[in-house]
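Hey L., structure's done. Input below.
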Amino acid sequence: MVRAPTANLRWRRTIDTLFAIAGAMLLFLAVGVLVGLITDLIRTGADRLSWDFLTSFPSRSPAKAGIKSALVGTCLVMLVTASTAIPLGVAAGMFLEEYARKNWITAIIEINIANLAGVPSIIWGLMALGILVYQFNFGRSILTAGLTLGLLVLPIVIVSTREAVRAIPQSIREASYACGATRLQTVRHHILPYSMGGIMTGSIIALSRAIGETAPLITIGALTFIAFLPPVPFTASQEGGSHGPFEWLNSEFTVLPIQMFNWVSRPDARFQVNAAAAGLVLLAITLTMNGVAIFLRYRLRKRIQW
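Output:
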């Protein structure tokens, strides 16, 4: 029996309404769980946050322990990660969209990039251990950690760059070519500025993922307890002379997620309070990075008039 058009339309609207209600319920459930976790984290670790906690080295005493070395290590590792992933990712994404010919070779490259974006992070750690640590002898250093995380998020930067470039109307390119501009001039003066908001957003979101990674850094030998900082460039060294500008790249390191893992694994409940406080700092850094991405996207879109 075939339903009348009116009955069929009413049935479809009912299905759409039920689907919308189910989606809203799942959304509120997910947000509620997230809010509950963050609330518990704040209630546990907020009292431990202080300037001494941020500027003290880890210690066997919970009351004296801080995150100074882990915080500095996180910033330096992310500096290397950003310096590696963002230029290479943007250049690769721009080349694939604007210069590469659409053939079977580029199709294979695109499929592999999409697959690499879903590879578990521990695989990248094992690869870095075998190639960067043992083959290239970079050691268990900040350089190795930054390159590892840079390779980890590189596919994400490439994909976000390509999506941002695809959003640029073809009429922009045609108008540029009609005025006598070359492909390089078109990319430099039109495509790249117009897509910069999406590129920066995708890049910062990729770095937000990298900042919370633990498995690849443990694999390459990050320390769980460290009570010193990397050498400051151009300062005096113990052997005489001064430290070079890039000597800190070869220093051993730890990061906030590993410091949290170390504290959580200890039986003393006071260390778990320290881990919660470190989690709040890491969460604040991540939210700040995402806030910067939103701000940059808003400013860049406001400056560019289509």
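The chain has two domains: 5-46, 51-303. The chain is about 70% helix and 0% strand.

-- N.
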